[in-house]
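Changelog excerpt

This revision adds worked examples to the README so contributors can see how folded entries look when concatenated. The first example is reproduced verbatim below.
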Amino acid sequence: MVDLNSGDGSGTPQAESKNANKVLAFIQRIDPAVAAFAAALVMLGVVYGMAAVRLNLFPYTMAQDAVIAAKALGAIEDDELMTGLIRMDENAPSTPKVEQVAPNGSGGEYLLVTGGSGEYLSECPTWGCLAWIIDRSGNVVHKWEVDFDELFGDLGRKIKGRRKTLNMYPVGLAPTGDGGLYVSFHGRNTFPYQIGIARISESGDVVWKHFDNAHHWITVGPKGNVYAPSMRILKAPEQFGDSGVNVRCDRNVYNEGVRIYSPTGEILRELSILDLYEKSDLPGLYYSIQNDCDPVHLNSVDVATAAIAARNPLVDEGDILVSIREPSAIALISQKTGAIKKIHIGRTAAQHSANFLPDGNILVFDNQGGDRDLGGTRMARVNIETGEVSTVYPTRADQPFVPVASGDGGQIDVSADGTRALMSLKTQSRVVEIDLASGEPLWTMEFAFDFSDFLEQHHIKAQTPKGYFRPYGVYYIDPASFGLPALVRLASSTG
C-alpha cells in the first residue's frame, strides 16, 4: 500500500502516475468471465441485501439484534448504588434539608415523601425507606420500610435484564385510606422499565401486587378505585391504526393507557390511548411521535371529583385527566364513554404530572415548554376549555431556585384548597412549594442523604458517603383521611 503522507516522495505527481499505470495493467489482465461472475455475485448480494432488509431475512435479523443489544448495553447504568442517587457530594446535607423561603411561611400540612431501596437508612436501618411522612420542619412522623427481596422475589422472567432488587424503585404513591400506600414501580436496567403496582400496609407488609407494567404517577378516584398508567407490549405494526403513518419501530411498541383497580387489587377496566386516538380521528398524533417504540408515554393520571365537576361544565365526575408525553398532549377522557372529550396538543412540551385544580382547570409540570433563560422547565396553568397556558413559576430570573431545569420526569401535587402546589424537580434534587396566585416559592427541601450505612452493608468503597437523590414525588397529607391513627393524634396535639 502506498503511503501518500510518508514523506519519501511517493506522494508526488510522478509517483501517482506510476501507481495509476500499475492499476490499469492489473485490470487489463483480468479474465472477462471472472469479472462477469464477480459482478453477478455483487449484484446478487445487493438484491438479497434489499430483500433481507425488507423481509427481515438472515442475516438482517442477526445484525438487527446485535444493534439492539449494543444500544441496550450502552444504556446500562451502574447499579452498584441506589437507584435514586444523582451525584455524590461531600458537602451535601446528611438528611433532607428543609427551609421556609417566604417570610409568611407555607402551609402547615404534613407531607408524604417518595423514597426507595437503601434510602434514608438513619430512619429505616434495615432496607431503607420506601416512603415517609414529615412535618414542615423535616421531622419524620411515619415511615414505610419494605423488604424489596420479598416484594420482588417472584418477579421471575416477566421482566428481562438486570432484575436485582436494588434496581426496582417506587415512582407513584397514593394513600389507601387505612394508613397504607398504593405504589407504582419502575426498574433500572430492565426491559420493560414499567414494573407494576402494589398495595403496602401501614406496617410495610405487601397486601397485593401485580407485575403488570403499571407505571408512573397514580391516583385514587372518588370511589376509592386506583387509577394507574398501564402498558402492554404490542408487536410493531406497519402503520398506526388505519392511518398512512408508517411505524418507525422494528420490534415492540409500548401500547399504553389507563388501568383501574379495585382497592382489593382486581382489574376493573383498561383504556388504550392508541385505541382512543383511532376512535377520535386524530391521525396527526401518530405523525408527531418522536419515538415510535414508545408512541404514548402516558405519565400521570388524575380523576375529577364531584366538586371539580360542579365548577366546570366541561368536566363530569370520574373524568380522567392524562399527560401524554410523546405528542406533548394533555387529554380529558370521559370515563362513561371512554372517548376523548378534550385534548390540547403542543401547548406544553414533554410535560408530566397533569393535575386538576379545584376549578376544573389544569396544573402541569411542563418539562421543556418554559423560558430557556430561566432553565426551560415551568409549572404551568392550562385552561381546560381553551388550552390557554400561563406560567406560574418561574417568571423572573431573580426568583429563588432559578434556573429550573428538568428535561424529563418531575411531579406536581396541588393543595386541597388549590392555593399552593409542590413541585418535585427530579433532576435537581429539590422540592419547591409555590404560591399559585403570586408564583413565589414558599418552602423548599433539598433531597440529600448520608448513605454510609448502605456502603458499609454492601462493602462498597466510595469517594464520599453523601450525595443528592431524585425526589420522585412529594404529596400533601390530610391526617384525618389518610387513616393513620398516630398521625391524627399528632396533628390534633400540634393543631
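The second example, added in the same revision:
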Amino acid sequence: MKKLAVALLRKEKVFLQSYSQATTGVWIAWGPVYVVDAGDTNSNQFLDELTRMIRVTLDNSVHGVPHPSQTEWKAVQAPMLEAVGVKSWNTLAKGAKSVGLESEGTLVKMEPSANYEKQGGTSLPDKTVECDLNSPELGSALLKAFEACS
C-alpha cells in the first residue's frame, strides 16, 4: 500500500510529516510533525534518529481518513507551522528545502524539489534518491535528496 510523507530541511532541523489519503482520494497532511536536529549531519546518532523518524513517519501514513471540511483545513496545516515556529507557509518556505517521500513495500523514493519558496516549488523526479526502508542508510539517503534540492 502506498505511503506518503514530506521532509523539510530548515535552519538545521529536519521536519517530517505523514500524508494520508482521505476517503475522497485526496492526500492530506496527517498526524504529528517529527523534528530531528541536524546540527551535526555526520554523526551516527543524528543519522540513526533520522532513519528511525523516517520509518515512523511513513508508518503513520494511512488510507481512509475523513476528508476535512472547509473549516478544518487550517487545523490540517497547523502542525507543520507550529513545529517550525512560524505563522505562514510563505515564512516557512523561505530558506527551506523540501523532499517528498513515497514508499510502496520496502522501496522508499525521495524526490527533491526546486524553488520551494515559490508555491511549494517544482518536483525534480530525475534526481529522486531510492533506498530500502529497512536500510541503515535511509537517513543518509534523505540527506542526499536534500543536497539535490535547489
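Reviewer comment on example two: The chain is about 30% helix and 35% strand. The first strand starts at residue 3 and ends at 10.
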